[in-house]
Amino acid sequence: MITSETYSKSQISSDPFENDSEKYKMIAENVTISYGGVPAVKDVSMKFKEKSVTALIGPSGCGKTTFLRCLNRMHDMTKNAKVEGKVMIDGIDLYSKEIDPIYHRRKVGMVFQKPNPFPTMSIFDNVTAGLRLNGVRDKRILNEIVEDTLKMAYLWDEVKNDLKKPAVELSGGQQQRLCIARALAIQPEVLLMDEPASALDPIATQKIEETINELKKEFTIIIVTHNMQQAVRVSDYTGFMYLGDLIEFRKTKKLFTDPKNDLTAKYVQGQFG
Amino acid sequence: MNNIEKRQEYRALFKQNVQKRLIVDKIVRIIIISCVIAAIIPLGSILLEVFKNGIAAISMEFITQVPGSVGSGTGGVGPAIQGTLIVVGLASLMGVPIGVLSGIFLSEFGDNRLARSVRFFNDVFMEFPSIVLGIFAFLVIVLVLGHFSVWAGAFALALIMFPIIARTTEESLKMVPVTYREAGMALGLRKWVVTMRIVIAAAKEGMVTGIMLSVARIGGETAPLIMTILGSSLFFANMNTPMDALPLRIWRLSMLPYESAQLQGWGAALVLIFIILGINLGLRTLVLHKKETMEILKTLKEKIGGRK
Hints:
The structure holds two protein chains of two kinds.
Chain A: E1 24-35, E2 38-49, E3 53-57, H1 64-70, E4 81-89, E5 92-93, H2 101-107, E6 108-111, H3 123-132, H4 139-152, H5 156-159, H6 172-185, E7 190-194, H7 202-215, E8 220-224, H8 228-234, E9 237-242, E10 245-251, H9 252-257, H10 262-268
Chain B: H1 2-16, H2 18-54, H3 60-64, H4 78-108, H5 113-126, H6 130-145, H7 150-174, H8 178-186, H9 191-219, H10 223-228, H11 246-255, H12 259-288, H13 290-307
Helix pairs in contact in B: 2-12, 4-7, 4-9, 4-11, 5-7, 6-7, 7-9, 8-9, 9-12, 11-12, 12-13
């Protein structure tokens, strides 16, 4: 067992963007998140380049999901959760007092670990929920978006004839792809994915990964995954987290082939986790 | 090796009392079934008794006419039926929105001191004897106005109604998994939109049950109505005169020493049960099977239109 004492913070290197002037979509600065005073994420700073895929990897309980959720202010709903530090999106601090998180959540789509389609709605209504409930009524636009996003999520062929069917009648994997379509329907600029493929079979996983590669052209994607092969396949940058610390954050290829940190090396070689 | 032996031992432990567990399972099952039967017997026998005694009294005259002269066995409970519908309807108009909104507040915004005290007083309120609420309505409305009033009756019933609805609404909303709320928030929806369009949609069934419980409860309330609408033998005239209601009529008829009057009392009780049942089924179909109901209405319309 590797405890927090066995590595020192000085080892941590966390900037894959040495002396470049890239355009960043999101920047997290010194983010600390604690639940009831116990920190789950400690002083994490990361930058997310526009139109890139960033993967967050690390063993269970390392704070990946907690960190991902703060990028969308999802902790607002959690009792006892406290977020410190700055999260910038397009140069605006998401946590500053004057900011209404609603507008930023519309820029940031999120796909959760467990599929969570709205139980009372049909497939069509689920995909369009974010639009309809925000006041979009135009049938033609809604129809277009449903077809477009369901195709992006590789679900269209399976459901195009039963769009009126209740969403809960779909299989788990189909439900997850529906949730991806639902997140895409609000036309976000950033897509947060919390282990989106953990409930999918290998073929559906492959489809999702193809989707991610396709979406990368338009979206900034941040994905939490347990599956290191997946991180290698889909991401441009990878951050390795351990016990709430960001241990190493570099270009994916470099992190996996030439890790600077012992802990990262051990993790990517499968020696613990 | 040691581990394997241990495991064998554990397995043996599980195997040795299979017989005993099966017997316990059977006993528990028998207890549960007998409890259900014990609960159904009084309910069933009340319904049966009311039906048996009341059905003879029911006729067109009985449900449409004013009461005849005492003991004659003529006339009906028309004013009482009308009065019950009016007073329960008015009470629901006041009690349902307040109850539902308080329930939403308690469940969705209820993580503060205000909500905790509201919840506490709500629970206390629910346990209040209904006659106390009747006296309260009597004091603040009837005495102030100087006459019996339909408003006072509806107000007293609404007071009985809303804590029940608030509590059941809160409980059914709390049953909705937080993941649906998260999904809604992540779509950039405002909290009230998430609450009204997603959470409530998922909790509809429990909320309707709560509302129906409260309607059934106030439909049978007698004491608060004595203090507020008094009772009458005439049809509804205006809001400021006494009015009849089925529980009041049942109570009066059953106190009379004439067999014909008591028979009418049974009849009135049966009518009340049918009204509550009707409201229950009606509301359920309307809210929970909205689409199906609309389709049935549509086809009916088409058929009628086609005949013309």
